[in-house]
Amino acid sequence: MSESSRKILSDNNVSVTNPRILVLEALMESQNPQTIDDLQKKLENKVAKSTLYRVLGDLKKINVLHEFTSPDNITVVELLLHDTEHHHHLFCGDCGEIIDVSLSNEFEKLLSVEIKKIERKFNFQINDHRVEMFGTCTDQCSNCK
Amino acid sequence: MSESSRKILSDNNVSVTNPRILVLEALMESQNPQTIDDLQKKLENKVAKSTLYRVLGDLKKINVLHEFTSPDNITVVELLLHDTEHHHHLFCGDCGEIIDVSLSNEFEKLLSVEIKKIERKFNFQINDHRVEMFGTCTDQCSNCK
DNA sequence: ATAATAAATGAGACTTATTCTCATTTATTG
DNA sequence: CAATAAATGAGAATAAGTCTCATTTATTAT
């Protein structure tokens, strides 16, 4: 675990420091997206707040981290490693849980056709996309009772 | 214009006040999503900051307003009126412009099939969705030179 | 291994978006 | 038109995120 966080850093030519290793390990503890608050709790003040934000910025720069905002306006962060497959997000409006979901290849193929149309129509170069789905978990979400 | 903002409010059983009318009119001035800052400029201090936020909250509650966050973490807001068709968003990473886009019926149909699958798989009830596309406008965006 | 140098960190001050409070004003209704 | 409940304005309070700068740590060339 510690090994692979070191590797992520050195492979991307950023220096291997303790705070960076700790943040990566905290991020690796769960596969679904997590909030800054979640991270701070896991890190137990072993990394200064300013450093945490800086490290997250560094990880974004080397494309290892994706940051976005939940519908209730909370910043959320998730690791994007080589083996992370392309995915989308499902948001629970009751408990705030965010779940990674994959959609069928057939769908993804049609979506990329649509995206090419949009690129032409608006003279854009589109390099990423995501489908966000909003709803409520009907009974078995881990946070809702 | 003033007429229809009054109608939106009374149709939704919220009292018709000046700040609410002014905010609705400012929102109606552009069809693409706009920032809180854009709104404040249009309102020229005719509505207090605290009231602006409150009114936006009221409009969200009656489902007339949709609020979301741009990739550079700026809160953005757009009117959702009866005649607003279902659409998605295209973000320019250079100038921050956000453009409403529609996708083909064929695509939307396949997407709703996918969504039904996700609902079953995760025991969710999904009531909204949006496709976000990220890129850069290659030459003719109004804000980029 | 070590010293020199450049980069990263910690601590806390600072900024800025949003929310809250409470005294005053406005809209609704009967 | 008066009574009452709701909405507003002004500015204080909060909280997320950024910035500064003195100190520490990692890298590298010897």
- What separation lies between the terminal Cα atoms of chain A? 33 Å
In order across it, which strands form the biggest sheet of chain A?
Answer: 1-3-2
Helix proportion of chain A: 40-55%
Given the helix and strand composition of chain A, which structural class is it?
alpha+beta
The two chains with the largest interface, and their residue counts, are: A-B, 40 and 40 residues
CATH superfamily of the largest domain in chain A: Winged helix-like DNA-binding domain superfamily/Winged helix DNA-binding domain
Task: List low-confidence stretches of chain A.
Answer: none
The Cα radius of gyration of chain A reads 17 Å
Beta-strand percentage range of chain A: 15-25%
What is CATH's topology name of the largest domain in chain A?
Arc Repressor Mutant, subunit A
Secondary-structure element series of chain A? HHEHHEEEEHE
* Oligomerization state: homodimer
Question: Counting H and I runs of at least 4 residues, what is the number of helices of chain A?
Answer: 5
Number of strands of chain A: 6
Principal-axes geometry of chain A comes out as globular
The CATH top-level class label of the largest domain in chain A: Mainly Alpha
Relevant terms:
homodimer; 145 residues; alpha+beta; Arc Repressor Mutant, subunit A; Dna Ligase, domain 1; 2 domains; 3-stranded antiparallel β-sheet; 3-stranded mixed β-sheet; 5 helices; 6 strands; DNA-binding
